[in-house]
Amino acid sequence: MSRSVVNRWRAAAVNLGAVIVLLVAASLLPPDTSLSDRERSGVLKLCVPQSFPPLVTGDPEMPGYDVELAGAIASEMGLRLQVNTLPAIGRDYNPRNWSLTRAQCDIIGGGVADSAQTRSFLQTIPTDSRTGWIGISATGTMPETGSVVAVLPGTSGLDRVALSTWLRSQGLRGQLVRSPVQLSQDLASGVAQTAVTERFLANGLELDPAANKAFWLESDHFAPVSTALGLWKGDQTLKRAVEAATTRLEASGSLEKLRKRYGVGAELTLTNP
Amino acid sequence: MTAIMLLRGVYAVWLREITRATRDRAQLIGGVSRPLIWLLILGVGLNPYFRGEVYGEVRFVIPFTYLQFLFPAVIVLNIMYTSIQFAVSVIWDREFGFLREVLVSPMPRRLILLGKVLGGSTIATLHGSLVLILARFADVTLSIPQMLTALGLMFVLAFGLTSFGVILAARVRSFEGFGVFSNTIILPLYFTSSSVFPLDPSLTRTQMVTAYPEWLVFLMQINPITYAVDALRGVIIGFNQFPPAYGLMVIFGMAVVFFVVALIDFGRS
């Protein structure tokens, strides 16, 4: 390169270099105090429902995938995990009525779907266990047009409107049920030919695994999604630290062991509780 | 003149714009200060008002944080300022005689304008991409295809807005006049482009006008920058408030229409 060309671009390169260094330095600034607050208190608070197997079980020996995962993350971050079990979670379809606040929870677990609906309220960190709408029937398929389908939507944040629209487009009549017990009864008594519910809710159904088959429901509007840990919107530095800890756990193989231990992969099984 | 000579002419005009802009520290400082002010000060300052306090209760119902929502809009703001203020260089060249010297050359006027607009667009795209350095701060993750698509859209948008700057320059006779003109155009266009607050895509028009006054919704919907910001949001954070094709049509439409009008104006000058 000739000296004149070097001289021509020297000033421009110096100016651009200074600008880039300044912006890179600015990008390293912490955008909030969420991580430093937790580090000061030494505690990471996880809010979970009473039971949402296998993500939250209430069993001290095997407390659940989300509880153990959050414990490992807290440990990686040098914090102590405090699990707050809140019976209000899942009591109502509207999460607003659960009254979960920043004061109670740093992270929300136990059945948070990584969906656009959830991300309207929380930031999410996918945990690699799969959830979504599943069908349960004797044949392992959806019934013919005009049949009744019992629907237990649950509280994970899956898209209920998309499910309802899809059921109508298939010519099926969705019948809302209020509890796993009612869903099991409707299916067993023949009131409904097929049941539709959230993947992990199916674990709480009293169904004969030999007589019923579970299958993923998939359409353009809803596919299985990952479950997630939910963090408050705007807690950017805490989210980064949790993601970094999760990446380290994945690299060490700890997460894979945890997934196998709780069977939270994509394979569907019905268990008789 | 052969095609090669004409291309060299376009290149020379382009290179002059690039050299001048990259040596101009004041312009570069402007390109840095805007993202710093908008993302670091405004974004972080307003963050507590948009973050969740109670699960299920949030005023800002979009699946992204406020910083993520603001990020593509700040890119557009940087492009708007640099592109439209490019007109200053046209006025400068006109006032100090450089334009006259170029215009008496055998180069066709349309190619001189093309070289200038390409130079302005390149600099505006560079200023827009400076904002991308703050992606980590805003928690925006970009893949290589996303980055390339965003840069492509940014360049076409910059081309249209630089042409718009030339149209303005043809109607303004002094530097002082242009300063006022640019502020009365850039900031109103930016603030009425759904840049700092969302039009909720899940709402019907009737619902939307209960959240915002109808005149504001109307201004946002007729503002072409609304669709440019929306197109970049679609690419960068995967969130569109309007059908994605609208943004592309508006960005490419602006580039063609403004360049043609700039050609007519430049030909007359």
UniProtKB/TrEMBL annotation, chain B:
InterPro entries given in the database record: ABC2_TM, ABC2_TM_bact-type, ABC_2_transport, Nod_factor_ABC_transporter
Residues that span the membrane, as ranges: 28-50, 70-92, 113-135, 147-170, 177-199, 245-266
A Gene Ontology cellular-component term: ATP-binding cassette (ABC) transporter complex
Domain of life: Bacteria
Subcellular location, record wording: Cell inner membrane; Membrane
Example of a GO MF term: ABC-type transporter activity
Pfam families xref list: ABC2_membrane
Alphabetical keyword list: Cell membrane, Membrane, Transmembrane, Transmembrane helix, Transport
Membrane topology of this protein: Multi-pass membrane protein
Residue ranges of every copy of the ABC transmembrane type-2 domain listed in the record: 26-269
Main location (coarse class): membrane
Entry's family note: Belongs to the ABC-2 integral membrane protein family.
PANTHER family xref list: NODULATION PROTEIN J
Protein name, UniProt field: Transport permease protein
